[in-house]
Amino acid sequence: MLDDAERFAPLNRAYADTFRPGRLSVGLVVPIDAYPDARAPEVADHVARIRLAERLGFAAIWLRDVPFDVPSFGDAGQVLDPFVLLGALAALTDRIALGVASLILPLRHPAHVAKAAASVDTMSGGRLLLGVASGDRPEEYPTMGADHAGRGDAFRAAFDYVRRMADPFPVFENAFGAPDGRGDLRPKPVAGRLPMLITGGSQQSSDWGAANADGLITYPRAAAEQARALSRWRDRIPEGQSPKPVMQPLYVDLVDDPDAPATPLHLGFRSGIRPLAEYLRAVRAAGVNHVALNLRFNRAPIERTLERLAADLLPLFHDGDDA
What we know:
Elements: H1 13-18, E1 25-29, H2 46-56, E2 60-63, H3 82-92, E3 97-104, H4 110-123, E4 128-133, H5 140-143, H6 151-164, E5 196-199, H7 206-212, E6 215-217, H8 223-235, E7 246-254, E8 263-265, E9 268-271, H9 273-286, E10 290-294, H10 302-312
Parallel strand pairs: 1-2, 1-10, 2-3, 3-4, 4-5, 5-6, 6-7, 7-9, 7-10
Antiparallel strand pairs: 8-9
Helix pairs in contact: 2-10, 3-4, 4-6, 8-9
């Protein structure tokens, strides 16, 4: 049994189901599609494949916030607006956690973010995980009349605004506005506040991120390097706060030979199921609590790959125990 000092904070259903100390769950990045030679996927199968992922037992799906298809970035994400798709998924799924990795806070007014996110959280019964970031596509900032150089300050102000909107009739002032207590934003998050995970540094100090976020979304690394990075981050969590979870994405191309060794891909690798399982065990030991697989470069049919992952990989991490 874990004592209270070892448990994650009691936030919503998705946070509790997806993140458990010392354990690892497996999710998927949306689009659940292979489009290695294109910047954008087809959108017709988005919902059907997410519902299949839920039936097969994946813990979470993760949408991305990509307002514009920027050719130099090379990936338009799932194309559909994340909150529009999340609203549909809240009604069309029952169990799977609905994650955003990550919303670009400086490019949206935080009142809209707070209302949309709390609406999804309410509609889904507490299944929203809100990843937030400062953005990695400079071209989007002038398109929206936003200051790229000032995105770090804007991120902090937006983050604080979203947090404060969970309070009744909040009174405060920052760069995005000055709520004065005469109006209240509804609905409120199911657990009293939204689980907000910061992506990378988001132009903030490590101390600020560790103190304010409910978890970290980090980049794939070799297990030993990941362990060092996560140890440094967790050392910065202020005394008295609960431990905080970590998730990472991973591009994979799952081949038929279960023992095929790993060969590098962009932010991931091509391999058989056993080397993939070995890597997941290693990053679990390094302190990662959730890995979201990205199948963009997968060469086998997507439905067949999902079924193989569900049959041969997910049972190895059920309740955190190897089979």
